[in-house]
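Repro:
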Amino acid sequence: MNTRKNAPLALVTGASRGIGKAIAEALAEAGYHLILTCSHTLPDLQEVAACLEEKYGITCTAMAADASEPAAIEKVFASLDHLDVLVNNAGISYIGLLTDMSVEEWQHVLNTNLSSCFYTSRLAVPLMLLKHSGRIINISSVWGNVGASMEVAYSASKGGVNSFTKALAKELAPSNIQVNAISCGVIDTAMNHCFSPEEMNALREEIPADRLGQPEEVAKLVLQLIQAPTYLTGQILTLDGGWQ
């Protein structure tokens, strides 16, 4: 893969739209060369990559890789010889009663949201150890902190992400690799388009900030975590407009 060894390189999963796309642009603007992945929207991701290259003069590689499949992640890392930043953003939701959920649906949510962090991190860490530095940032949810009715699998997966973050941070702190997570509230993305306008208005009224969060705000916090003192690690930072 054509990336200059001394140039900062970041990998963002689930980057074709929403939060992942906003994170990719923020990193590109900051001068990072990028590896971007998606599961099923490669043409959209390729368009994002081309735009970022033209706009910011960085290299940006778009790859189709289902984050829930370890073999797919191994292919992404196969040609990488260094990595500075890993952003685990890929995620899916399931809304419905637990008793209506199939075993396959449960496993798909857990594999995509939680196991994917393991699949990427276990390959990213050896590359970061080469420089004795690195940042791993996991995109989580407030439901990982408090749980949500009708979203048991999603809540469980994000709770797992939070614990994964804290544990891995302790493991990697002696190696100067920081691991943190952003616990997002209601962000204005396609994931929330399943709700009716009435439901979204009711939800908005619960948020003290009186609005939904924007993907660009998550991206800005990602950059701040990358630039934060190295003593900041193992933290779950909540970005929810004062909601939870």
